[in-house]
Amino acid sequence: METTKKIIIYQVFTRLFGNQNKTCQPDGDIETNGCGKMNDFTKQALHEIKKLGATHIWYTGLLAHASQTDYTAYGIPKNHPSIVKGKAGSPYAIRDYYDVDPDLAEHVDKRMEEFEELVKRTHECGLKMIIDFVPNHVARQYHSIAKPQGVKDLGENDDCTQAFNPQNNFYYIPGQKLEGEIDFYNPEMGTYEEMPAKATGNDRFDPWPNRNDWYETVKLNYGVDYINHTGGHFDPIPDTWYKMEQILSYWAEKGIDGFRCDMAEMVPCEFWGWVIPRIKAAYPNIIFIAEVYNPNEYRNYIHNGHFDYLYDKVGLYDTLRNITCDYASATGITHCWQSVDDIQDHMLNFLENHDEQRIASGFFAEDPFKAIPAFIVSACLRKNPVMVYFGQELGEKGMDSEGFSGRDGRTTIFDYWCVDSIFRWNNHGRWNTHLLNEREKELRHFYETVLHICQNEPAISDGDFFDLMYVNLNGWQMNEHKQYAFLRKFANEVLLVMVNFGDAPAQIGVNIPTHAFDYLKMTPSPKCKCKDLLSGKQETICFSPDSPVCTELPAYGGKILKFKVK
Q1: Residue 515: pLDDT above 80?
Q2: pTM to 2 decimal places
Q3: 5, 50 contact by CB (below 8 A)
Q4: Do the domain assignments include residue 179?
């Protein structure tokens, strides 16, 4: 029986990953704080990421985006600092869809060659490569200097006297300049002026964005009339659709393996339903991942938008976070998978990414080991992909006050900075564990163990699933608010997965119902030898509907018992 490989994505914030400059001055510029490069992803670094268990690497922040760093010597226009968040800038305020961020290049004039070498090197190390596609908005001073010959720039042919025109690339506020609660004056560059004002990226269709808006971006027009509320104008095909197709094709041709599509639900599903099949017709193996937060739209973006995977944020992520922080019961996990059972294979699980607070931060769990049971569930619950954010496996705290965002429990996406745990793992390009402390080594080993289980056990990557909670409620042998248990099975191999979110070891008895034996086609065994894949220890259990499986779970831990059935 053939099995498929479970997708495991390692997300890196590219500019931070390889930076060895430890100055870490808040709001520091690139000269002061340094910046990681694409070339820092050496074969050694990539082999270590592969060794951790990753199948894919998502390089976050590769595309050229607005920053306060001056690259005019290379023919790159300077951005006005008032409309750039942080010194390094948001990687989601794209200034040129056809260019690579010059910060990431050893040799700025050869940045595209360095990108192409990165693609090649990533593939040679056995990893597939994902990059961002940012469809909803661009930097206020968007201008492509790298677009291929014959490609028209965004807004080049717009009629800016019209607030909305289906063939415009932007939305305008005719006769009004950009104002807002932002200081648009800079001593060096004077006052930033935008006339007429363009709509702001987070759907502000007026000229008054404030500091909490995505004021550094402008909204792209996909033919939806937000001004007069006349709905979608998709016939003829809006010009923006064609321009975005050109951009996707441009990067797909360079050999990347997937796109993570930022705020995909802010773009009409009709566009995705049109563009994804067109890209896949030329590049059939490329995958599309959507950042979507509205569960009511999940099926629309999968079935009609043709996305391969969607973020499971408001379901599983939020639930596991709340259980870890002792705000919710473990019984909530059952509701999570039930609510997306028909589309489960299309959901992407995670506990960290660049938008979320670090597990080890004071805003989440503080102790990264408290999330061990949550990660076991996230990684092993079903067949669908799982993602790890760089430094998560080392317990990175994200508690620095780097600059723009301040101390918020996130690793900055706006500033030049050095990430301490990654710095020590880097160890001057050696990419080994010599400078990590014992707890960091232990945590990394745990992540590596779980991810390799995901890769090597067909029961996880391809097996059936059976939730055991409904027969373990209100029992004296198991606390359903602190423990969770389920079965995975492939052929004659069974995994009994049990986790304990509690702060003390738990002696538990897990009931296995007759229905599980019937559904999974298993024969009971009164004396069943098994191995805990997490610890490597052997134990004997009674695997029968007549008697519970009795075992001890460590505090903030779990077991994955593997055994064979007839």
Answers
A1: yes
A2: 0.98
A3: no
A4: no
